[in-house]
Structures are given as C-alpha cells and as structure tokens.
User: Fold this.
Amino acid sequence: MSGGLATYLPASIVEYYLNHDDTAFKPPFRHRYKTVALFADVSGYTAMCEAMAELGQIGDEMLAKHLNSYYEQLVRIVSKEGGDVFKFAGDAIIVLWPQSEEDLETLTRRAAQCALEIDSQMQNIRMSEDVVLCIKVGVGVGDLSILHVGGVFNRLEYVAIGIPLVQAFNAEHHIVPGSAVDPTMKKSGQVVMSPESWDIVKEYFVADVKDDHAFLKSCKKRLTSQSIAFTAGGQNLQEKTVEKLKNYVPSAVMPWLDVREEKWASELRLITVLFVNLGLSESELLRITKEDDIDTVQTILEVVQQSVYRFEGSLNKFLMDDKGSTLLAVFGLPPLAHEDDSVRGILAAINIISSLRKLRYTASCGISSGRAYCGIVGNRFTHVH
Assistant:
C-alpha cells in the first residue's frame, strides 16, 4: 500500500511528511522552498472531446484511451527529467521540481530540458482525422508555498502558490495560440521561459528573446536525466506516515489501493461536475505566500467542503492556475452515487455561493452532467485520479 499511495501524491508532499514525521499536523499549515515550475497547456482537447462525443459510447471509450495514452507519455517525459506532476488543471498540468541536493540552476536546467522534450515528442499529435493535439509550455522560478488546508472529515487538500507559478502562467500566455504549429513539423517552438528563469540558464540553451521572455529552441549542454523514481515517491513509508497521507487521497481511490487493483478503477460514469472559482485574486494569493496568514484559504475551503459533503459529493482538487483559484467537485463517484446527483450538485453550488457571500467573497460555479472517464492516468511513478 505505501508505495502505491505515494504515487497519488506529489513527491514534495510525501517528502515533507518523511522529514516531519513526528509532528502532529493540524490544518492550516504550509511549507516553503525555492524551486522551478512548469505549466504545460494542451490545445485541441475540447475539439477531441466534441469529435468523440459524436460517436456515442464507443467515442467515450476512444476518448479515454486517447487521453490515457497522451498523458501517460507526457508524465513519463516529466518524470524522466526529475519533475513532479503536482496537479492536473483541466487539460493542463502543473509540474514542480521537488527539493533535492541539486541547486536551483540545475533544477531550472532540468525543467528547460523537460520543456524541450515535451515540445519535441508531444507536439502535433493527430488523435483523429480532424483533431490534432498541441501543447504550450511556460517555465518560472522562485519562492513557492504549498498550503495544506481543509480537514472536514479529515480530508485535506494541498495547493501551490507563488512567483514560480505566476511566471510560468505568464510565460505560457506569451505564446500566440496556434503560432508556429505545423502538422508537417515535429518541433514547433512552443516553450517560453520567464526572464528570471532564463537568466539562470541562458548559457546552456539557445533561444529567441522577445519582451524579455525566452522562446527556447535547443539545448547546448544536456544534463544526465534523473528520474522522479529516485525521489520520495519511490520510497517505502512507515504506517503512521501512510495514515497521514491517506487524508489527501479521494475516497473513490482508496478501495482500489487497499486491494492493489488500481487498473480496475477506471470506468465511464454518469457524473455531475462542479467547477468553482473561489474569488481569490492572484494578488491575494501572492500576499498569502509572503505572510503567515493562510486562515482565509482555510475558511473558504472548509465552507466548500461542508457544502459538498453535505450533499455527498467528492472534492476532486483545489488549485491555483492561470484562471485563478479553482476547485473541482464531483457527484456520482463511488461509494456515494445517486440518481439525483445533478440536483445535489446544484444545491451544493447554491450553498457554496451563499456561504461565501456571507464572508464577502464572490464565488462563481459552473455545473455540467454527463458521461465522463473516471480513473487513473499517468505511469507507475505518478498517478492522478
């Protein structure tokens, strides 16, 4: 169980508990370190979903197969360069490099190598006659905070905030959608580094610099790859550490972990999904990065947890991405699926908005229902449900 459990959590979370195993943690708390962040955003994802939806149930199965194949390869590239998939953000992924004995320059070089490899291997992938997946990558560096919040029914969430992410998001946004993308070309130059990260590694790479941002072209001197398998995620964990880490894993995953049969956890299900923008601005989150006051995030998440769990939904993820502070909740996952999950989702959304308004936060919710792939993506070192 211990090794399998670790693959469902970022190495930075597992490592933190390994290094603070005797501490009794009560949310909210945080840990900080200086690192490099990579934000990879896939385009063509929506078109693929729409094309597969027209095929009916066989289209759902083909969609699941294509997504698993694409993201498994993407995660493999990230892992090979020592990166750690921190969270999936819709059709994008947020990657961090965990604390290690390597200095910031080395970690930033690994991130840049990883970005170029993604650009080389994952660009212009034809999924069907009319659907081509492309990917844009941004890289940033600096001080990062990981907040550990929540705690309703012992369910904890982790969220990364800080300058590296802001830089990575901004860098990725410097890429004009569809620019330099040619289905006949393997490489497309869709990698941009922030000025701060480029300044650290510019002697090792070739790039075109525009508006202080570096559009990477090639690597002058490569580092030997170092797999994420050699980080905390590949270690055996003590039972007391396992019990703490279980609090971060959705209940829908745990039964499969207990019987070590994760491969059977994937299926197509009728679910209702809640997308919640929590109303926390980027400036507010950056302020929290620098100060010790994380009670705001804790209060907001507790409100959302209470609303979701009241109607027997599942909290899937909480993250800060290029669209702000976002939370994803799902109704219809085992072991709590209901015929009226769509109604439960609507009631939970109303409750969330009403409760946060009383705290003077303006949240917004989007709700959708339908058949979706629910299961495992990644590889044997990194799983995401």
In short: Residues 29 and 222 are 37 Å apart (CA to CA).
